[in-house]
Amino acid sequence: MRRVSRITIAGVATAALAVTVSACGSSSTSSSSSTEGKSKGIGLAYDVGGKGDQSFNDAAYAGFEKAQKDFGVGGRDVEPTDNESDADKTQRLITLAKAGYNPVIGVGFAYAGAVKEAAQKFPKVTFGIIDDNQTQANNVADMVFHEEQSSYLAGVAAAKATKKNHIGFIGGVDVPLIHKFEAGYEQGAKSVNPKIKIESQYLTQTAQEGGFSSPDKGENAANGQIDAGADVVYAAAGLSGQGVIKSAAEHKVWAIGVDSDQYKQQALAKYKAYILTSALKNVEGAVYDLSKSVIKDKKPLTGEIRGSLDNGGVGLSDSNPTFQKNADMQAAIKKAEQGIKDGSIKVKTS
């Protein structure tokens, strides 16, 4: 039977990388002398936007990096290419598996078909996919999250922070996964103020159009929402969210980050005073735990692994001192979190 497992919190560590190039996109490789005769280590294939998005992909990289250091193994992380096909994704995973990496992890729901095909070809390799649970294979871990729960808390924070009773949501791509972020955010905000005005916009209909990888699109969308009166804007848009944060800072209104604690991201440091909080998704822990199960425990995790408020898989960051010191906001968030955990609050997913 396939197991359902829980996600634990993993910290961030560093490892040296040497750059190399593959036919399936640029990649980085690191190695350890302790891996002779064993798995080469961890294979990681990034989603649209790639490493450096200060959000989703970088969270996966943090788990990949920490696992290499803690378990004394090597690894190879591979970037996506522009306008790539599903066949390109499949070949990327097959190349990693054939080279001896185990586990091999696809970052993002776009890898669903690729993971399914590669897992069939390499039944002795453990594959992981983040943000999809449709694979249903014995050697695949489907790592998914209750994004709507952390987004609900973000909505509560936004409703408590706004001075105009007017907030915004920007989704990268109009797909069911991002609908969960929007649904939770809207429900959370309306739990504080049922009459609050919420601007909502998706940047593109497909990922190929750049919804997750275009900071300029995010900035333009945020400019429009702020001009319309929103003074808190939440983006679930990957790399495009950097443009939303830039716009919020320039207009001196609040931004709410996503996936990683964006207040702490070096590339966003000049904007951090305007990053109220971030709706966290423990992608780092998911990558780390799957790697640990294969490399150290020798008992690979498989089946659906779902992160929630209960197990620390999702949450809300508190790095910004302004956020920490707002007693009214903190009380409302704590009450909402307890309600979600005890089941008295049922968070919508669409």
UniProtKB/TrEMBL annotation:
One GO cellular component term of this record is: plasma membrane
Q: Name one Pfam family in it.
A: Bmp
Keyword field contains Signal: yes
Kindly report the protein's main subcellular placement as a broad class.
membrane
Q: Where is the signal peptide?
A: 1-23
The subcellular localization recorded is: Cell membrane
Q: Which UniProt keywords apply?
A: Cell membrane, Lipoprotein, Membrane, Signal
Q: How does it sit in the membrane?
A: Lipid-anchor
The record's annotation in SUPFAM superfamilies points to: Periplasmic binding protein-like I (SSF53822)
> Where would I find the ABC transporter substrate-binding protein PnrA-like domain in this sequence?
47-347
Q: What family is this protein classified in?
A: Belongs to the BMP lipoprotein family.
Q: What is this protein called?
A: BMP family ABC transporter substrate-binding protein
Q: Which organism is it from?
A: Streptomyces diastatochromogenes
